[in-house]
Amino acid sequence: MAAVKVSPVELADRLGLVTAGELIPGHVPITRGAGPVSVLPVTEDLRALLPEAGLAGQVAIPSARPGATSLLWRLLAGPSSAGQWCAVVGARWLYPLAATAAGVALERVALVDVVGPEEVLTALGALCEGVPVVAASSTGLSPQQVQRAVARARRSGTILIWREGSRPVPGVDVRLDPEACQWRGLRRNAGRRWGAGRLDSCWLSVAATWRGNERPRRAEVWPYGEANGGFGEVP
Length: 235
Description:
Blueprint: E1 4-6, H1 8-14, E2 28-32, E3 35-39, E4 58-62, H2 68-81, E5 86-89, H3 96-101, E6 109-112, H4 117-127, E7 133-137, H5 143-156, E8 159-164, E9 174-187, E10 196-210, E11 213-224
Parallel strand pairs: 1-6, 4-8, 4-9, 5-6, 5-7, 7-8
Antiparallel strand pairs: 2-3, 9-10, 10-11
């Protein structure tokens, strides 16, 4: 099935279908700080990178890194496949078929079309009322706007995944940095930015930095294709 594409106005009518923290497969309540926190499942290759071995709290991915979008899709694969609703705010740059290849259940993903920081904030405000996992870009948002969005998400139990711009998002629970990325199946395409051919598999080396612990953890992640799918030795 295709992902659901909605505008911020249409979004409000659709949120009646879902409740944040809903007890559906994969939802595990834990207690952190002042109250309960939901831990949502992730694929096996991501478990060692996350403090609760699942999605909980606020996550940031540096968007300029090669492989950042592939890593985002892989993060959404676990909760969407377990029946949780996810949303991606500002989705014009995304290719939904890549999400399917990464294991995302597209019928559980809303792609919210927005233009500009104000619409991003409007969408985040509506989504945090009912969607368990929301991904959005922090580019163009002021630190105060980011803080307001994070505070609202924490109150509702929504997990925010930030596509981080040049300015780091403060106070995230974990930052996932794709340090190395290799694709199989693409060849160089003279005169163009991107390669040509068919993408067979993608390998990432990801470093995770947890809040309060500066020592990063590292793991290999395969968003597309099988492990050791033809790269030979990887760094």
